[in-house]
Amino acid sequence: DIQGNHYTIALKQVMGNETHINSNLKSLKEKGFVNYFESECFEINRRLSMHFIGKNVLMEQWLEVVNLILDPQFNCPEKLYGQQYVALLEKTSKNAFEDSKLMDKHSMESEMIFCLKKCGSMRLHLLASLVPRPNRLNYIRAYQQYIWNTVASKRIAKFGLKPIIGDLVYAPASGGCDAVSDENGTVLFITEGNIHNYTINDILLPLPGSDDTIYPSNEVAGWYTDLLLMDGILDFKERIGSYIISGEYRLLIRRPSELTWKFVRYDDASMNLISSDLDRLLNRREPCLVEDGAFLGLVLEFNLPPSAYASMTLREIVKMDKSVESSPDTKNEPSTSTFFESSDEPKEKRIKLEVN
How crowded is the C-beta side of 18, counted as CA atoms within 13 Å? Predict the structure, then answer.
């Protein structure tokens, strides 16, 4: 019955003009943030995102699935398959298959390597069986979420922060003749007659699934098809059907509730700026804050509903891309650029985080 989560977060060694930081925070409170799935839903490391594996699971490209899973495990410099991969591992480590430092002997990865060594890459049904069903489901969900993030970016980039005819919204309790229902809820299409009742905060985007997910009745619906076709998936419902992963509807914009913040000053860079629950239980001393301290900190408190991410809230505050695709050595999608207006301050003067 969880209604959401309450967060208390401290940003340490903040650099920037407090006036502009306050402006960012007020914008967040009033406008909210794009309700992306956070980058941790996708990232395995800086070179690979989980949705790539999910796409190949759906396509039943099991050799590619295995190589994608093993590649980041050993930082393989290039794509290698079957016995080539095993040869590289043996060259890299004389005890590649026994060395407990490399991996758990009973892990999915070690089972894959053993299978490749013993059977080569021809017996794909064996490779498929080495990817446990829970792992497959997680990879496919990451692909669902990637599709949603990509459509969300394009929706705001093209149509801005306003509803358009054909968008989806949740239907009021009374429903009405225009309401359309599936197992995930009751939704309405925005029409010329009701568009004045809604704002960008009401707009829903669906995640594609194995059920009869309802899509917007406008250009946005075609973007889902285009993205799937680009990945070679002609019938997503058929591909995902055996996994019974339902679609759902997700608000495009979220606003944190009860958002408050305060600036603090402190001298000790290693000091915690907020007390944990354990600190309070043990009656530990409160953080030693000083009015003219050398460092600036920002302490925030806010609430979010389930499946909304604090990392995406912070991203809107700091105006920095926290995702894997922002790394210069990757070209992964989706793009997660901030769409709300940023401060006019030069980029280097905006609020930044110093990693301790």
Answer: 11
Q: What is the pTM of this model?
A: 0.77
Residue 127, token pair as written in the block: 């490779």
- Distance (Å, whole) CA 42 – CA 52: 9
Q: What is the pLDDT of residue 81?
A: 46
CB 62 within 8 A of CB 128: yes
Kindly state the tokens that stand for 209.
């699934």
224/37 Cα distance (integer angstroms): 17
Quick one: which H or E segment has residue 147?
helix 133-159
DSSP state of 102: T
SS3 5: strand
Alpha-helix runs per DSSP H in 33-105: 50-58, 62-74, 82-92
Mean pLDDT for 135-150 is 92
Enter the tokens of residue 167.
């968008």
Q: Which pLDDT does position 132 carry in this prediction?
A: 85
Residue located via tokens 């390597």 = 113
Q: 315 or 185: whose pLDDT is higher?
A: 315
Inter-residue contact 145 to 41 (CB < 8 Å) = yes
Neighbours of 147 (CB within 10 A): 25
Per-residue H/E/C for 17-51: CHHHHHHHHHHHHHHCEECCCCHHHCEEECCEEHH
| pLDDT at residue 353, rounded to an integer | 33
Ramachandran quadrant class, 73 (left: phi over 0; alpha: psi -120 to 50; beta: rest): alpha
CB under 8 Å to 181, separation ≥6 — which residues?
Answer: 175, 187
Query: Is 161 a residue whose pLDDT tops 60?
Result: yes
Q: Which CATH superfamily is domain 144-254 in?
A: TruD, insertion domain (3.30.2340.10)
Cβ–Cβ < 8 Å for 35, 312: yes
Integer Cα distance of 257 and 332 in angstroms = 32
Between β-strands 253-254 and 248-251, what pairing exists: parallel, antiparallel or unpaired? Answer: unpaired
pLDDT at position 257: 95
From residue 117, alpha-carbon distances to 60, 79, 83, 104, 162 in Å are 21, 17, 7, 17, 56
Domain residue ranges of the chain, discontinuous segments joined by +? 5-32+255-327+337-353, 43-95+103-129, 144-254
In 218-280, beta strands by DSSP E: 248-251, 253-254, 257-266
CA nearest neighbour of 151 among 110, 109, 95, 208: 208
